[in-house]
């Protein structure tokens, strides 16, 4: 009788494994609970099947979702690239305004920050951006190639591959 | 990442449809849910939490719309709109097309809260505590609505409970 009082807990999926096993073990001897469980399973199976079969997602909706996500991704990358470029400009501006900007030590320190042709990853919340300093014959101007990091996208996804 | 996220779209759409009972509103809710999920995709580290998280976004968006009166009151029977798009499946021959249609019509005829909790439990296999989390109601409210929904469905679909009917006749 005590176990029958937990029928709703069983039907609602609120039992831990041990409790569920114990409840199921008493079903053959309890016609009332067995009937309720069979009814609930019948209903659940019927609704689950009907839900999937009669409610397919419209094709246009799939396309629209894909399109909106792709557009959002492009905008995010553009924002990241602009931010990276702004950082590069700020660093260059500071070096140019420095009273010791022509010192070799300063130029070297700038090169130490962004060595030529060595990609540097700049992390942003929405995805990393790679920046590569291009070698130019100037001490006050720095050109950077900025592009979205493909490995950044992979690394974001990697913990979720088991979905 | 977006591919893995987009695979959830059909389930989000079905959930939105059962939540709103309006295909057009469900369409909007699904798009907003998927876009919001993509923007916050870093929260998707825990695969087990994804489905609850997605359905909670949908439910929150729906609540926001109701508060702002942006959506019409749910229509009683949206199935006519989606029925045209259905596809043949192996289960139909076993259960019967009309049975499936009646089951969904009966589900959609339930009061809002009963319909929502029964859908999430029967079709998405959510526990009562997960449903409470998604819908933002107490677990007690989930349990009482589930019991009421089951009882009402039994009244609406008596012939689909052959075991129950046979047992009750013989007892």
The parts of chain A where pLDDT drops under 50 for at least 5 residues are 151-163
Overall morphology of chain B: globular
Percentage of residues assigned to helices of chain A: 55-70%
Query: Total strand count of chain B, please?
Result: 0
Largest sheet of chain B: none
Helical percent range of chain B?
A: over 70%
Radius of gyration of chain B: 17 Å
SSE pattern of chain A: HHHHHEEEH
The radius of gyration over CA of chain A amounts to: 31 Å
Strand order of the largest sheet of chain A: 1-2-3
List how many beta strands of chain A DSSP finds. Answer: 3
Strand percentage of chain A? 5-15%
Quaternary structure: heterodimer
- Rounded mean pLDDT of chain B is 79
Task: Describe the structure using short key phrases.
heterodimer; A: 163 residues; mainly alpha; three-stranded antiparallel β-sheet; 6 helices; 59% helix; elongated; B: 171 residues; 74% helix; disordered C terminus
Describe this structure in words.
- The complex is a heterodimer of chains A (163) and B (171).
- Chain A has 163 residues and is mostly helical.
- Helix content of chain A is 59%, strand content 9%.
- A three-stranded antiparallel β-sheet of chain A has the order 1-2-3, covered by helices on one side.
- Chain A is elongated and about 90 Å long.
- Chain A starts with 6 loop residues before the first helix and ends in a 6-residue tail after the last helix.
- The C terminus of chain A is likely disordered.
- By secondary structure, chain B is an all-alpha fold.
- Chain B is 74% helix and 0% strand.
- Chain B is built from eleven helices and no strands.
- In chain B, helix 2 runs antiparallel to helix 8 and helix 8 packs across helix 10.
- Chain B is globular.
- The N and C termini of chain B lie far apart (56 Å).
- The chains are: A mainly alpha (163), B mainly alpha (171).
- Chains A and B meet through helix 3, helix 4 and helix 6 of A and helix 1, helix 2, helix 3, helix 5 and helix 6 of B.
């Amino acid at each position: 009788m005590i176990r029958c009082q937990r029928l709703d807990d069983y039907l609602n999926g609120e039992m831990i494994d041990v409790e569920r096993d114990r409840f199921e073990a008493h079903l053959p001897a309890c016609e009332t609970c067995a009937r309720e469980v069979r009814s609930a399973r019948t209903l659940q199976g019927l609704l689950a099947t009907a839900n999937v079969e009669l409610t397919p997602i419209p094709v246009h909706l799939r396309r629209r979702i894909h399109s909106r996500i792709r557009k959002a991704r492009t905008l995010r990358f553009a924002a990241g690239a602009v931010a990276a470029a702004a950082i590069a400009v700020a660093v260059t501006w500071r070096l140019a305004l420095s009273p010791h900007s022509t010192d070799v030590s300063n130029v070297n320190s700038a090169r130490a920050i962004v060595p030529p042709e060595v990609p540097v990853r700049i992390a942003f919340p929405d995805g990393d951006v790679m920046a590569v300093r291009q070698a130019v014959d100037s001490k006050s101007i720095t050109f950077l190639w900025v592009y979205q990091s493909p490995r950044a996208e992979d690394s974001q996804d990697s913990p979720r591959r088991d979905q | 990442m977006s591919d893995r996220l987009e695979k959830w779209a059909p389930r989000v759409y079905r959930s939105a449809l059962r939540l709103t009972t309006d295909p057009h509103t469900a369409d909007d809710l699904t798009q907003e849910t998927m876009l919001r999920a993509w923007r916050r995709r870093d929260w998707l580290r825990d695969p087990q939490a994804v489905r609850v998280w997605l359905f909670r976004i949908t439910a929150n968006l729906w609540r926001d719309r109701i508060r702002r009166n942006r959506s019409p009151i749910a229509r009683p029977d949206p199935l006519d709109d989606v029925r045209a798009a259905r596809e043949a499946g192996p289960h139909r021959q076993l259960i019967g097309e009309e049975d499936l249609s009646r089951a969904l019509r009966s589900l959609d005829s339930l009061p809002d809260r009963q319909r929502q909790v029964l859908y999430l439990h029967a079709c998405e296999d959510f526990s009562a505590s997960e449903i409470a989390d998604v819908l933002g109601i107490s677990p007690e409210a989930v349990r009482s609505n589930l019991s009421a929904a089951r009882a009402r469905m039994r009244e609406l679909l008596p012939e689909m409970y052959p075991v129950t009917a046979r047992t009750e006749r013989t007892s």
